[in-house]
User: Which sequence fits this backbone?
């Protein structure tokens, strides 16, 4: 197997993944990541495991973000498995999510952010934060929150998997009232400048950072995924089960969810250390 042979098979691989009904976004990501790998390969060289590891090290030098490195590895591994070359598959870089949890909003931060959003008249931003923090969805899954889908459970599809995300009654009531007040009768609940089109992720990100600055919450703690982490920690502290949380968040492995379990235990220990009996 060499560079040219891989290039010749790329389109067939993407067509096969299309037949598995993967999203256009996922297909584009796979093709882009695999093409980057193929472009990096030296001409006419036999592809070996050593060469694969060299590319992994190249990715580590290129980006320090673990999730980005692992997204490349996911695409490449799927490709080499499809080619029947399981021996070339790479191990993913161990997740650094434990350290990311150091920069997550807490309940006090959350209340400040909501208060500031209301104060600045950004009802849609307030509700977006409440949706992210109240359901644990990923920011890209916000697109499933439409007038047509609004109900006690919302079907969310991501990474080829569909799950039902429960919505609290109070939040559901407020979302419906918001739609009625703003005459949103179909499509996304959170339209941007273009009628019928949802606010872009970058626009939401910018709004969150601005609200963070105004509410005196550290900006590095305020980003869309922080609300997902916040939801997970609060859910477990409220007595929710680990396996339930994995299902709500759409985790394919309980190992990912257990990171929150460990973090929750550490939170409880910190609270105990602050207790005074004298």
Assistant:
């Amino acid at each position: 197997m060499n560079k040219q042979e891989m290039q010749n098979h790329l389109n067939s691989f993407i067509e096969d993944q299309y037949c598995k009904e993967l999203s256009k976004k996922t297909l584009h990501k796979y093709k882009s990541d695999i093409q980057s790998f193929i472009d990096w390969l030296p001409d006419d060289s036999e592809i070996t495991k050593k060469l694969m590891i060299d590319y992994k090290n190249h990715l580590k030098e290129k980006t320090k973000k673990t999730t980005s490195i692992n997204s490349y590895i996911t695409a490449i591994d799927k490709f080499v498995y499809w080619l029947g070359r399981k021996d070339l598959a790479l191990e993913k870089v161990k997740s650094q999510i434990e350290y990311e949890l150091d920069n997550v909003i807490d309940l006090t931060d959350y209340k400040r952010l909501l208060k500031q959003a209301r104060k600045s008249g950004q009802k849609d931003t307030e509700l977006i934060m409440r949706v992210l923090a109240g359901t644990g969805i990923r920011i890209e899954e916000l697109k499933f929150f439409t007038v047509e889908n609004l109900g006690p459970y919302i079907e969310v599809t991501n990474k080829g998997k569909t799950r039902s995300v429960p919505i609290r009654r109070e939040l559901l009531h407020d979302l419906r009232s918001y739609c009625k007040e703003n005459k949103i009768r179909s499509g996304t609940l959170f339209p941007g400048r273009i009628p019928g089109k949802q606010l872009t992720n970058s626009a939401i990100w910018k709004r969150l950072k601005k609200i963070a600055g105004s509410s005196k919450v550290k900006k590095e703690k305020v980003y869309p995924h922080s609300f997902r982490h916040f939801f997970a920690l609060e859910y477990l502290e409220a007595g929710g089960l680990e396996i339930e949380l994995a299902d709500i968040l759409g985790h394919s492995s309980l190992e990912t969810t257990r990171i929150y379990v460990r973090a929750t235990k550490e939170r409880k220990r910190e609270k105990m250390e602050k207790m005074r009996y004298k």
Summary: The beta strands are 153-158, 161-166.
